[in-house]
Amino acid sequence: MRVAVDAMGGDYAPAVVLEGVAEALKLFPDVHILLVGHQEKLAYYLQKEHLKEGPRLELVHAEQVVEMGEPSTASLRAKKHSSITVCAELAARGRADCVVSAGHTGAAVAATKVKMRILKGVDRPALSTIMPAVDGHFVLVDAGANTDCTPLNLAQFALMGEVYAQMLLHIENPRIGLISVGGEDSKGNHLTKEAFKILSNMPINFVGNVEGHDMFFGGADVVVCDGFSGNLVLKTSESITSAVGHWLKSCLMKNTFRKAGALLAQNAFTELKAISNFEEYGGAPLMGLNGICIIGHGASTPKAVRNAIRVANDFAKMGFPEKLSARIFECGVQYAPPPSGTEENKPAENHPDTPAEQ
Amino acid sequence: MRVAVDAMGGDYAPAVVLEGVAEALKLFPDVHILLVGHQEKLAYYLQKEHLKEGPRLELVHAEQVVEMGEPSTASLRAKKHSSITVCAELAARGRADCVVSAGHTGAAVAATKVKMRILKGVDRPALSTIMPAVDGHFVLVDAGANTDCTPLNLAQFALMGEVYAQMLLHIENPRIGLISVGGEDSKGNHLTKEAFKILSNMPINFVGNVEGHDMFFGGADVVVCDGFSGNLVLKTSESITSAVGHWLKSCLMKNTFRKAGALLAQNAFTELKAISNFEEYGGAPLMGLNGICIIGHGASTPKAVRNAIRVANDFAKMGFPEKLSARIFECGVQYAPPPSGTEENKPAENHPDTPAEQ
């Protein structure tokens, strides 16, 4: 499998990306990397990681980079030769089987949607991410690609999460929950109430509305919501975890007894950090594309980059897009383009700036 | 100040409510309680807390209780003699200065809106709650009363939070942030983008969009959002805090060293629990009413009930509704009822089941 890696994307690119690539090449023998970025700028980091072009590492030049502050459409307009656009083109032309980027989320969404195109039957691709729960994990879809959604979008997100959970978490019949403000069927906003009706009639394992406690204490394997809400859950979880860590530290440093206790138990705190670390889980797949794209957190570590490469590789091997498309038609929730239309693959311009930064 | 307390509302009512009332009578000498509930059923608990009718404790009979699973409109239709409806009537008739309930949130919202009526210029009342942040707190509005909102609602929520922060947190010029999916002005969904424009033109200390990290690490004193999002932030925060506590415990119990360390540092964990305990902060005021209503968490402890009584008392003394109404007109964001209309005080039936359970 050939993975196109955006070497320039991410807060600590290209250094961290190349470290991740070096690890992936060592650990996953079937991975072939197409490293996309400004070749001159990469030279130093390649040497540092003892990486050389060879049968499993191909270098592809890209003149530009979409910076974090730029609009998402930069990947399609001002910066047509950016690393993420070149990655998407490699996938579109069949030279790569999947794309990995830890750069500008919106730019990656825009570039892949236009270049790789949207999967048959899908209205809008969505980002999913794996979240830690007590005694397990759950898949959150949409984690931030679409800030305004329709009930049909949410029905399709449910299937994206279902196929994800089946393929990567090996859960045969994943329990699918809908984020709402109360467990009862009648609770929710206009969007979730309509989505609830559709989900109830689909041949899936729909467990109804879920709230905070249900999510983090094992109430569902897949949690479905619009991208605004998903991003809110993700960011709130990350921040509150970090705030609790901060409070814990300051409580432990208050006197000598506590400091001694903290020293004795220090491995427990390291372990806690790993459990509640959201980036251990291998990036967020952008699902619903005619291909595979994994988007990493902007602050990705080498381990996160390496995990994203592994997930991309697994998705490609298992034929994720084909399975998702089949499932969408099977459940009768395929997107019907408006009758006027030749716009089956709607361009990303529909919501140019909405994709949230991860 | 006379506080009407719904003795029957809450998961552990009436026992916990009466414990809280007993504490409040001891601690706040200027509080006068109107205890509303089924007098026969209360007799046992009154005796247990050594509470007797007297100059500072008046008993008011209410035949019914709105149970948690019932629709919000039960307080207005099937159960017109419920404890929360009677509380709202006492406030409406001027016999009470404020209402406190830890019962069914939606029922309390419906009863108070219809009986006490909505404040001049306000479109929809909203719930606010104080959330812990690293090195401080922030006020979250709307925490769950309105699941579908307009940009004007969000502008009014900002002023509710502003007056709250001024009066109870003593912050002269509170920094007001808008929950979104990115810090840049252009990020958000349709609702937040429109609200951003209005907020930018108001004479307030608007600091722009805020995300998870900004919220919990001191980026704003007031955080504004629709009630669906607010409820999501609240529930996610509570659940992830509880999940982290669970993970911490299991990490600490893994071997003898860690157990010994945990024992030495045990006071730190107790302290951590208090910091991240969301119910310490005195209930959620329902703001925008022609009066004062504080809604407690269903699982309120006696301390939470006592704190809610203190906050209700403070709000009443400081003339919260008058100040809020004045500020709304001053900022030019008053609600204009549709021209057809005599519906200045719109009945709660507009969104009967939307208020989220706290």
Write a brief caption for the model.
The structure is a homodimer of 358-residue chains. With 358 residues, chain A is an alpha/beta fold.
Question: How is the secondary structure organized here?
Answer:
The structure is a homodimer of 358-residue chains.
Chain A: E1 2-6, H1 15-27, E2 32-37, H2 39-48, E3 57-61, H3 83-92, E4 98-101, H4 105-115, E5 126-133, E6 136-141, H5 151-168, E7 175-179, H6 190-200, E8 205-210, H7 212-216, E9 222-224, H8 227-252, H9 256-264, H10 266-275, E10 284-287, E11 293-295, H11 302-318, H12 320-330
Parallel strand pairs in A: 1-2, 1-4, 2-3, 4-11, 6-9, 7-8, 7-9
Antiparallel strand pairs in A: 5-6, 5-10, 10-11
CATH topology of the largest domain in chain A: Rossmann fold
Helical content band of chain A: 40-55%
Which chains have the largest interface?
A: A-B, 68 and 68 residues
Please state roughly what percent of the residues of chain A sit in beta strands, choosing from under 5%, 5-15%, 15-25%, 25-35%, 35-45% or over 45%: 15-25%
Q: What is the CATH class name of the largest domain in chain A?
A: Alpha Beta
Strand order, biggest sheet of chain A?
Answer: 3-2-1-4-11-10-5-6-9-7-8
Major pleated sheet of chain A: 11 strands, mixed
Oligomer class: homodimer
- In DSSP terms, counting alpha (H) and pi (I) runs of 4 or more, how many helices of chain A? 12
Strand and helix order of chain A = EHEHEHEHEEHEHEHEHHHEEHH
